[in-house]
Write a structure and sequence with these properties.
The protein is of the alpha/beta class. The chain is built from 9 helices and 6 strands; from the N terminus they run E-H-H-H-H-H-E-H-E-H-E-H-E-E-H. It has a 6-stranded parallel sheet with strand order 3-2-1-4-5-6, sandwiched between helices. The structure holds 6-O-phosphono-alpha-D-glucopyranose and magnesium ion.
């Protein structure tokens, strides 16, 4: 890649710490279902859609539920989650992410949100960053979840840039896998991210100049 034309952001755990809220909400639900749940297991849920996450938890606890029970528990988890995101403000942006998004926009590079969350629109509105995103992929319209590349390919298509000129930013292994499967440069936020092309421990380390140096 010679020039970055698009930066595609995951939301939970990259722009704001809602990954922690998803964790808390699933933990509460797992307790109700009497299934053991810890941070290590939670890593497998990051970036994974609501229903698929519930399936993973049920398999982990060796529990079987009917389709209507699954719907019931998935919506219960979402109710917990919605209570938690109701009070989000711009103070909940992760350190340095606003500045990073602003410098990308100032450089004339397009941006898109590639989050699997059906709550993404509410969260970005509460964070007041809607103007920094040219496009938002609608998670409800996707056929396959991360690690499938569909969401990142869709984001590149929506900003009208070739995927080979796009960079994806993710905190989840499933997300990094999706970015790589889409043929893009992958920035990983956090540790334990295999295959990421550039890993930063914290969002405060994200800088356009550093990213441009990495893609050369
Ligand atoms: C993101 C999060 C996952 C979450 C998924 C669906 O990918 O990383 O933890 O399960 O979105 O979120 P939703 O808000 O639709 O339940
Ligand atoms: Mg994430």
């Amino acid at each position: 890649m010679k020039e970055i034309r698009g930066v595609l952001f995951d939301l939970d755990g990259v722009i704001t710490d809602t990954a922690e809220y998803h964790f808390e909400a699933w933990k509460k639900l797992a307790e109700e279902l009497d299934i053991s749940f810890d941070r290590e297991f939670n890593e497998r849920l990051k970036g994974v859609g609501r229903m698929e996450s519930l399936e993973l938890i049920l398999n982990h606890g060796e529990k079987e539920l009917s389709e209507s029970e699954k719907e019931h528990f998935a919506s219960k988890k979402n109710d917990h989650y919605k209570t938690m995101i109701a009070n989000i403000t711009p103070n909940d942006l992760l350190p340095g992410i606003l500045e990073f998004m602003e410098e990308i926009k100032e450089a004339g590079i397009k941006t898109a949100l590639a989050s699997s969350s059906k709550n993404a629109q509410v969260v970005i509105e509460r964070l007041e960053i809607t103007h920094l995103l040219d496009e938002v992929v609608d998670a409800a319209k996707l056929e396959r979840g991360k690690p499938d590349p569909e969401i990142f390919l869709k984001a590149a298509e929506q900003i009208n840039e070739p995927e080979t000129a796009c960079v994806g930013v993710e905190d989840a292994q499933a997300g990094v896998d999706a970015i790589k499967a889409a043929g893009m440069f992958a920035v990983g936020v956090g540790s334990y991210l295999e295959k990421a092309d550039w890993i930063v421990e914290e969002t405060s380390q994200l800088e356009l100049k550093k990213l441009q140096a990495k893609i050369q």
